[in-house]
Amino acid sequence: MAANPMSQFDVYRIGPEIKVGAFDISFTNASLFMILSTVSILLIFNLGSKKNSIIPNKIQLLAELSYTFVSKMISDTAGSKAKPYFAFIFSLFMFVLFCNMFGMIPYTFTVTSHIIVTFVLAAFIFIGVTVIGFIKHGFGYLKLFVPSGVPAVLLPLIVVIEIISYLSRPISLSVRLFANMMAGHTMMKVFGGFVISLGIVGGWLPLSFSVALTGLEILVAFLQAYVFAILTCIYLNDALNLHH
Amino acid sequence: MVKKIYFQSIFFSFFSIKEAFAAESGGMPQLNPEFWVSQIFWLILTFGIMYLVLSKLILPKISNNLESRKSQILENIEAAEKQREDSDAKLKEYDEIISKSKLEANSIFNQAREKALKDIGAKREVLDKQIDNEIAEAEKEIDALRKNAPDKINKIAIETSSELLQKLIGAEVNNSSISAIVDDLSKRNGDKYYGN
Hints:
- Chain A is mainly α.
- Helix content of chain A is about 70%, strand content about 0%.
- Chain A has one domain.
- In chain A, about 35% of the residues are buried.
- Chain B has one domain.
């Protein structure tokens, strides 16, 4: 089992099988790490917001820096109109970040390395952004597919391309995160396997690669959470501030 | 020899890994729909609860904390600015008082100097008068003495010469003849002795 680099993505049931109607909603290792991530997020930010001291302590500083980081990211990309969606984007960023980071601990499970999880998030964002766009602009939201300053001859082609690119947003958003996570963890597992099979003689090279990859993967874990959140902001910006 | 074993071991281990993967790989677990519903359910549950708690309880608190810190800092800056202005005004006042008192001190000094000069002048005048008087008196006295001096000298000269003659000659000489000689001599030599 350990030699297969894909076995780390196996989902298995913890405890009894729970069925609601035809659906199996058993508690799995994925559920465990979702709960771990959310509980640690809530714990850290609860501790960080408990005391209101003028000079913040470390955990308060962490919470406040994250708050200002995300709020600045939203106001930079989506403007002041996106303020009501701050809590959602903050939760999204923190959830993805913590799931990615938990995956970096050996023998853990990476929730975001599953396409179904990232796709549900991305689909929710896609549907939500589209609904917001139609509520704010009515059918005028369809102007999004007609960029200004395009010659009339090219217009049919451009509109088709724009519609395809709009519809592929949830796919690109979800696949980007899932593929990054899966590829990184697979690569680390493969190099880890090389260390064992090459032994004391040749194992040092893949071991040093593994160490470097761990640093890279921590960077990727943060970066992908950031990209996920900032793309959500950009989609939200399209829906809130329609450019003609 | 060691090098050869090293490369051989790397070569063979690649083979063994490939075989192991080929034996165990059963596709991607991500594409196995067995636990998809479970994952969706738990994702919505955990993310939903986290979103609710964050948006209703925690994020407003953090935003509150940040706001209160911002306002407190602004207040403190304002207070500091005010105090600075106050101290500036007080410094100005102090400077004014100092310059005023300097002027006052100057004027007092000048007054005192004038007064002292006046006093000195008055006293000097009085003293000058006194000195003048004294000088005048002294001059008078000197004059009187000078006037009387030839007579007295003549008298002394006559008496001395008569006594001298008596002792030298042993005879009485008429005083009047001696005085006539003395008068004559003194008239001739008077200018030499007194310089008048």
